[in-house]
């Protein structure tokens, strides 16, 4: 299923049903800083949700281990008289992150080339998340990003329930198809093991679609348009849903260069994208929609909730409400999360074109681990030893 394509016949009934059902309904609860019940026990929250400081620590540790490997190799070469200059050459954590960001952009370009078949957006979300998770525990100096990028994209097709054959996948790579076919086939299991077999990923795409449809239905209700033929005559709501979803997906794909998929929940990611879209469309009053409708700060919504609480048998014992979840507190906490995302995006340097090869790529070619380079002599020797051991076991 391609979540960027919407048939008008599918949208109209939902909008009408939603408008009717929401007339007397309380505002839906939206997660503030904690996970939803479904996410709370999911591996994405338990194993792959970090604070910015934790990400810095993980990447620094990976970088330090790779530099130790480089220094050990240089010391051995110096002892054997093979290297006169013993100065270590390597990347720092910031340079590694810049390389990862570059290959996230390359992955998006490759993803766009899949037109027959066209891959769902979920595949890209899965693949980028795999890619970023992998390099929390490994260095680009050990495992070349291009190789891991292709493997992530191939595994993501399977995990997102859109499997395609290896030959079909490789046919979208411009050159060295035989080499990459061998590489992807032999790296697939290693990648899944490195990810702890946590392959299902909650992405912002579906949440964005839900928010967009809710926003359009809210605007129609606020404007007092209740004619059954309104959408048929004007077509504006259907077009607006398509436009917002398309622009929102593009924004999600761009923001995947940041660490938001590792630091915030998908629903908050999607909501921040919707708010960003609202900045270029002030007539939609997106922030008012979030505050009044989703968080329930609208006086009418609060009155309805209060009336619902007072209805029923007075002898019935009702649970005491937590003040944390009153509309104002919900909006305040959600606003702080959206501000954090906005600040992250504003301070981030996005890659929007390929550009020339940077100094980081040149250094990476010099310090790449030969044991994981299928074109190196060290790899050939290690593979030969492994094949000999396997032959003995047989």
From TrEMBL:
Domain Cyclin N-terminal: 106-199
InterPro entries: Cyclin-like_sf, Cyclin/Ssn8, Cyclin_N
A Pfam family per the record: Cyclin_N
Biased composition (Basic and acidic residues): 315-324
Molecular function per GO: cyclin-dependent protein serine/threonine kinase regulator activity
CDD domains found in the cross-reference section: CYCLIN_CCNH_rpt1
A single GO BP: regulation of transcription by RNA polymerase II
Region (Disordered) residue spans: 305-324
UniProt KW keywords: Cyclin
PANTHER family per UniProt: CYCLIN (PTHR10026)
Name the UniProt record assigns to this protein: Cyclin N-terminal domain-containing protein
């Amino acid at each position: 299923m391609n979540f960027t394509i919407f048939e008008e016949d599918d949208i109209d009934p939902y909008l009408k049903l939603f408008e009717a059902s929401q007339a007397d309904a309380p505002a839906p609860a939206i997660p503030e800083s904690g996970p939803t019940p479904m996410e709370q026990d999911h591996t994405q929250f338990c194993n792959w949700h970090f604070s910015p400081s934790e990400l810095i620590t993980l990447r620094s540790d990976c970088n330090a281990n790779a530099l130790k490997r480089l220094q050990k190799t240089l010391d051995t070469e110096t002892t054997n008289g093979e290297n006169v200059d013993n100065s270590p050459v390597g990347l720092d954590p910031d340079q590694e992150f810049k390389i990862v960001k570059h290959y996230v952009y390359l992955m998006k370009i490759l993803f766009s080339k899949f037109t027959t078949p066209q891959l769902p957006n979920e595949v890209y979300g899965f693949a980028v998340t795999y890619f970023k998770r992998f390099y929390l525990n490994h260095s680009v100096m050990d495992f070349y990003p291009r190789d891991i990028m292709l493997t992530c994209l191939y595994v993501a097709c399977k995990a997102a329930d859109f499997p395609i054959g290896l030959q079909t996948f490789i046919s979208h790579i411009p050159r060295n198809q035989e080499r990459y076919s061998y590489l992807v086939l032999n790296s697939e299991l290693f990648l899944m093991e490195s990810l702890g077999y946590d392959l299902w990923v909650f992405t912002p795409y579906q949440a964005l679609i839900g928010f967009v449809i809710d926003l359009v239905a809210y605007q129609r209700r606020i404007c007092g348009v209740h004619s059954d033929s309104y959408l048929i005559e004007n077509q504006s709501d259907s077009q607006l849903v398509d436009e917002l979803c398309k622009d929102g997906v593009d924004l999600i794909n761009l923001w995947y260069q940041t660490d938001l998929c590792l630091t915030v929940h998908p629903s908050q990611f999607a909501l921040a994208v919707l708010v960003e879209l609202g900045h270029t469309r002030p007539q939609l009053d997106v922030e008012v929609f979030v505050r009044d409708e989703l968080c329930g700060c609208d006086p009418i919504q609060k009155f309805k909730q209060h009336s619902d609480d007072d209805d029923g048998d007075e002898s019935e014992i009702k649970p005491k409400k937590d003040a944390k979840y009153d509309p104002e507190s919900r909006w305040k906490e959600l606003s702080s999360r959206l501000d954090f995302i906005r600040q992250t995006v504003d301070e981030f340097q996005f890659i929007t074109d390929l550009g020339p090869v940077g100094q980081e790529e040149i250094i990476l070619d010099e310090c790449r681990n030969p044991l994981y380079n299928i074109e190196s002599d060290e790899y050939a020797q290690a593979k030969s030893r492994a094949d000999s051991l396997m032959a003995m076991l047989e």
